[in-house]
Predict the structure.
Amino acid sequence: MTQVYFDLTRLIERLHRRFLDVLKAELDHLGVEDINPVQSLILSNIDSDEITVRDLVRRGYYLGSNASYNIKKLVESGYLEHERSPRDRRSVRIRLSPKAIELRAKVRELQEVHAGALTEIPGAAEELDRACGALRKLERRWSDTIQFGPTDD
């Protein structure tokens, strides 16, 4: 099991990098040059919510300084709108601009093409469902380790 675990952690990292490469290719296909793949992921994860940077980081997607830098760039390039909270001037609320909503829709259409291609592979839906279940269990285990510390079991 130890070797499988090590292989899995390497595969997760490689898949993430490969997914960013796919996003880059999709952005290039759309002629979008003013944001990078990580920034397009941020737009997807904000979705239609108005959210604080702190909440975005709390969701577990980004490190604080990385998120702040990328959000600053997204505001500068017109993909995000932001305003300071009237109650806590340190807190900034962000939301997608119309430009971001349009881009997010186009990227999702391209992602649907990728997902549709998987349906042509026999058994792929079931295998991916099982893989997602296993990854959720791994995420839960890692979350528990972070919150409660390592266990001996």
In short: The first helix runs from residue 2 to 30.
